[in-house]
């Protein structure tokens, strides 16, 4: 079903209101209890569980998230401007910056590969165990 522009606009606005409201609620709670932890991270985890347990249906935030992701590259413009402003300061440290980037990317890829391999072995092991149990029954 194709949504009209008005309905799409209302969905985006409603989703954004929910996301901002969730962030603000967590942020104010953290301020109230003097918790020094990123409230945006906790709000994201809460949103995950709200979606996982279907307390909030996916369609409520889906259009808002697509809208935010569409403009994601614009969020990095200030970082690039900052790099251009301080290029003299960063010029002497380019080797250490590049080596840190390459090393962190390699570590991330290796950790991901090991996690995926571990989870696949675990899944295959559980399936084999289930097959053996079903053979015993027969």
TrEMBL record:
InterPro entries: LrgA/CidA. The keyword Transmembrane helix applies. It comes from the Bacteria. It is found in: Cell membrane. Keywords: Cell membrane, Membrane, Transmembrane, Transmembrane helix. Its main location: membrane. Pfam families: LrgA. The chain crosses the membrane at residues 39-60, 67-86, 98-119. It is a multi-pass membrane protein. The keyword ATP-binding does not apply. This is CidA/LrgA family protein. The lineage of its organism: Bacteria, Pseudomonadati, Verrucomicrobiota, Opitutia, Opitutales.
């Amino acid at each position: 079903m194709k949504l009209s522009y008005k309905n799409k606009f209302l969905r985006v606005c409603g989703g954004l209101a929910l996301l901002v409201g969730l962030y603000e609620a967590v942020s104010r709670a953290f301020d109230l209890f003097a918790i020094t932890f990123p409230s945006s991270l906790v709000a994201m985890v809460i949103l995950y569980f709200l979606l996982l347990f279907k307390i909030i249906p996916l369609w409520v935030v889906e259009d808002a998230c697509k809208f935010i992701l569409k403009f994601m590259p614009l969020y990095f413009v200030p970082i690039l401007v900052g790099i251009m402003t301080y290029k003299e300061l960063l010029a002497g440290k380019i080797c250490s910056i590049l080596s840190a980037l390459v090393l962190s990317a390699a570590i991330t890829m290796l950790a991901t590969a090991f996690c995926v391999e571990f989870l696949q072995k675990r899944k295959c092991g559980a399936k084999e165990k289930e097959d053996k149990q079903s053979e015993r029954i027969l």
